[in-house]
Amino acid sequence: MKVTSKLIKQLDGKPIRLTSEYANGNLLSVDSNGLISLQEPNPPEEYDQHWKLDSVEKGFLISSVVDNYLICYDPSAQQIKTTVKEKGKDCIWKVGVGGEFYQPISSGGERYLWVAGGKLHATSDGYLAENWTPLDIGNNLPGVYTEKHGGSPSSFMVVILVIIVFLLIYLIWNRSENNQF
Fold first, then answer.
1. What is the CA radius of gyration of the chain?
2. What dotted CATH number matches 5-150?
3. Among the listed residues 15, 3, 2, the one whose alpha carbon sits nearest the alpha carbon of residue 136
């Protein structure tokens, strides 16, 4: 499952956790000083891994649940920052078809959220954009495999086994039909 505009509206500000395919099982986290990084699930108490994606006009805000840190872009420093008070256009994000978070740039193009070295950055290169995956929907925390691929390894194996059985039955039946002539 990936983050979509429809999902953001359905969540209606309910807390979720966020990861990406390049996070190696770590979750987007913010510490009590507003520093954003990737941390393993269930980090020490000083980290918050729960986020709200609140719909606003022309996009959504990404804010931490505990301290209400907003993820914003700082144009003067050309980097990602966190703030508790500011809710300007540099804090409003959109979601792309792959689940990436971006902001349109007034001079053209987009600015995407990107994780490198365990830290959150902004890039204008869409190929580096993270495809964000929501966790904790329905009060379950599926494994990384389930979230990333849409099913558990055991259900995948059952589907493969059923296909193999049907192919074997077909081949045996087809062979017996050919041998009768």
1. 22
2. 2.80.10.50
3. 15
Per-residue pLDDT for 85 more than 90?
no
Does 149 have pLDDT greater than 80?
A: no
pLDDT at 93: 95
Cα 56 to chain center, whole Å?
Answer: 19
pLDDT digits (tens, 9 = 90+) for 152-162: 456 777 888 88
Quote the pTM value: 0.72
pLDDT tens digits, residue range 61-77? 999 999 999 999 998 88
CA distance 47 to 28: 10
Q: Parse the chain into domains and list their residue ranges.
A: 5-150, 151-181
